[in-house]
Each structure stands twice: as C-alpha cells, then as structure tokens.
Amino acid sequence: MQANSLVLDHVSKHFTQPNNGAALQVLDDIALNIAPGEFISIVGASGCGKSTLLRLILGLESEFEGQILLGGRAIRGTGLERGIVFQDHRLFPWLNVRDNIAVGLKNSPLASAAKQQVVREHLALVGLERFAEAYPHQISGGMAQRVAIARGLVNRPSVLLLDEPFGALDALTRARLQNELQRIWAQENITMVLVTHDVEEAVFLGDRVVVMQPNPGRIKRIVDVGLPHPRQRSDARLVALRDDVLGDFLDA
Amino acid sequence: MKAYRGWLLPLVALGAWWLASEYGWSRSGLWVSPQQVLATAIHEVASGHLWVALGASLARDLSGFAIGAGLGLALGCVLGLSALGNRLLGPSFNTFKQVSLFAWIPLISVWFGLGDVAKVVFLSLAALVPVVVNTADGLRNVPLPLLEVARVYGYSRWQSLTLVRLPAALPSIFTGLYLGLIYSWLATIGAEYLLVSGEGIGNTLIDGSEHFRMDLVLFGMLVIGTVGWLLNSLARLAERRLQRLYGTF
Ligand SMILES: Nc1ncnc2c1ncn2[C@@H]1O[C@H](COP(=O)(O)OP(=O)(O)O)[C@@H](O)[C@H]1O
Ligand SMILES: [Mg+2]
Known about the structure:
The complex is a heterodimer.
Chain A (H helix, E strand, L loop, with lengths): L5 E11 L6 E12 L4 E5 L6 H9 L6 E6 L2 E2 L7 E4 L11 H6 L9 H14 L15 H13 L5 E5 L7 H18 L2 E6 L2 H7 L2 E6 L4 E7 L11 H15 L2
Parallel strand pairs in A: 3-8, 3-9, 6-7, 7-8
Antiparallel strand pairs in A: 1-2, 1-4, 4-5, 9-10
Chain B lengths: L7 H15 L11 H14 L1 H33 L1 H16 L6 H8 L3 H25 L3 H9 L4 H38 L6 H10 L3 H33 L3
Helix pairs in contact in B: 2-10, 3-4, 3-6, 3-8, 3-9, 5-6, 6-8, 7-8, 8-9, 8-10, 9-10
Adenosine-5'-diphosphate (ADP) binds next to strand 2 and helix 1 of chain A.
C-alpha cells in the first residue's frame, strides 16, 4: 500500500466518566502532520492520553472533536490500511503463531495462496519461521510481540501504530526488538507512530519526537531528531537529545 | 509410593471390615462380610442382572444428558450473545435455577408418569442448568481486547462470533458440559429412586434395601461410584485433548 500522510487536525477527546457522568477531557487540541514514511515517537507520562490518541487514529473510538485525515480523507472506523501493535500482544491463545498472523488477513482481498505466501514472508520478517506451529503460551513475551508486529504488518498498512509495544519486555530483548523494528521500518517504507514512555527508545527510533504533557493530554513540544537511520545507540547526538527530552519531564 | 497414598484409608477400612466380619463382632443380619459382597458381585455379573440394570441407567443418563446439554447450549447462546434474549429469558432462568432439582419430581411425575420419559426429563433438567450457566458466562466474558482485535481487522459479526467469541468461550462451555455429565449421573440414581419403576442400577439399590440385602446395596453403591469415576475421567481426558488442541487458555 502506498504510504499516505496522516494529519491530526486539532483533535480533542472527552470521556464521560461512568461514575458521575461528568466529562473528562483527555486530549486537548492535538495538531500534527505526519509525512508518508515518517517515524514518529510520542512520549509522555502514563495517563496523558497516548493510548487514546492511537485508538482514535485506529478508529476504535469514533467520538472526538477535530479531524483525522489519512491521504486527505477523514478516517471512519477501523481499516486495513491502519495496523496496530498493542502493549499486551493480544494474540488469540487458541491459534498458533502462523494462524495468529493470518488473523490480520481474514478480510484481505488476496487469494488464499497469496495469503499463505504473505504469512510466510512475515514469519521470516520477524524471524519466527521455526515457531510457526507454537502457541502463544509456548513462546516468550518478546516473541509474542514479534508475532503481533507481523500480524500488524500483513496487510501492508500505510500506517503502523505501536502502543508501548516493548514496555513489558526486559532491557536486552527491548533493545534487540528496537533494532529489528528500525530495520523493518526501513524495509517496508511505511509510516510508524510509536507511543512509549521510554525517552531513549523514542529518540533512538523517531524522526521526530512528540513530547506530551497530561491533564488534559496535549503536545508540549516536537523535537526534530534529524539523524539518518540506521542509528547507533551510543551516538553522542542521540544521547544529548535524550537528556534534553528527559529534562522536559524532570522539571515539570 | 506417593501415588498410592490415597489407597491407604480404603484398604485399612476394608481390612477392618473383613476382621470385624471374621471375628463376628456384629451378629446383626444387616452386617455383611466383604466375601458376601464379592459373591453377590460375581452373581450379579454372571447372571447378567448387572448389565441389564447398568445398561438401562446409562442409556437414560446419556439420553437425558444429550437433551439437556443440547437445549442448554442453545439457551446459553441466547443468554450469552443477545442482550434482548438475556432481558427476556435471563430473569426467568435465574428464578428457575433457584428451584431445587428434586422439587420438580412431583410435577414431572404428574405430567410424565413414573416411566422412562419422566426420568429422562428429570435428567435433562439436571444437565441443563450448569450447561446454560457456563455457556452464557463464557460467551459474555470474552475479553474486550480480543474483540477489539476482531474490529481492527474488519471482522463481521458472524466472524467475531465464530472466530473469536466461541473459541474464547470454549473452556467455559466445556466446564458446563463436564458438570452436566456429572450432575446427570447423580440425578440418574435420584430419578430411579424417586420415580420407582423399571430397570436401573438405582432399582438394584432399592431391591437390596427392601429385602434387607446389604450385600446388594453395597454392591450397587460400588457400581454407581465406579461409573461416576469413569465418567469423570473420560471428561477429564476429553478436556485435556481439547486444551492440547487449542493451547492452554
Ligand atoms: N473509556 C474510557 N472512559 C473513561 N476514561 C478513560 C477511558 N479510556 C481512558 N480514559 C482516561 O483517559 C486518560 C488517558 O488514558 P490513556 O489514553 O490510556 O493514557 P496513556 O496511554 O497515556 O497512559 C486516563 O485518565 C484514563 O483514565
Ligand atoms: Mg497507554
């Protein structure tokens, strides 16, 4: 699928609180233009509305103010051109790895043989060919998250949304998967929007880093990383940027 | 050694029983020896009485279970999947299940007599309740995150039902069927005891007690326990198979 620009046009979101019926503002006037093929990181403390923002883009929540445009058209509901990787991998426990990846293709227009081919390619993309027959409870958290990434990519979406995908993993696995995600992003040439609370991860992967602040969730500033991919973690400019962004949270 | 520890108490009891009979601690005619029970068992098996009685009971048990489980699955699906169905039928069912199973006996015997039909109706009621409750619960409690995955990939209502909700509810549905199987076997004996007529292992028990033949009563109890244990093991085995098929939930 051709990458498309993603435009958040003054998006705000209120929830009605179930206990007292009062409106709670969760997002306030989010404005952001994301170029086709760009890697955007969104960092913010928990509770500042990052997941909600992704759910709006994904089309799981349809009530909000403002507009979300993909390729110039307002999004309506969910669509196969937008993929997602949730923090909890959300694999179906009764399906093996191969079939979990194929879940994404259930309603794709591809013929059955082509679907099988696509699933094989994505198993290879995330390096899990040997685990195709394994069930989710038989694989590690890192592998489950790779399966979820493969499932999110099978439709060749123009945008892949990632909601703290590595948040529950140990540091070594997380670093390895970050490298892998960088490689996949370069290879697939799609837009990625990564939500994280790990500033180092945000800076390492993002072309731009959107810093959010809470109550209500809004954009504090947008940092241009401006370094070519693939990047080295030890790059002094990355380290400096990380400290700069961390400063936003420390003096808040 | 550990695996056999559970046998210790029954073996000690058996030994004590045998000693007590051997040394004549009880002169009562209601006291029988293990040897007598064994002789009765051999006679019942050889004469074919056991197979007639057990066959009749099992046939009843399985047909009642099949009817009750079938209706239970259908009703459980209505309650678990349809908000309207739940509003219409939920309160009635919840009241219905509060009525003790045995309280239905008088009504059933008036409507259906004391024969096989009445017994099968009673058994199917016994199987129905746990199947409905667990099927409806399983379908209602499918994790929302998984249903969201279905929405993300544009699943139709039918696809979400067959590819997400049913498989997610399967362990709970299976628990219901498992309980239904156990309950209907217990109810089989109850039905034969309360709706007295015809053949059945419960009737063997009644015969024994009416003729003060404790050997027959004890033999009947052993058979009932063994069948219950076998049904239980079979259901366990099926459950484990299912889990292997679907991974652990
Ligand atoms: N469905 C909902 N109804 C009411 N409040 C919600 C709902 N979903 C999220 N919220 C609230 O919105 C705020 C932002 O949540 P979330 O987007 O999950 O934040 P983050 O992902 O940044 O941690 C939180 O205060 C949360 O309690
Ligand atoms: Mg979140």
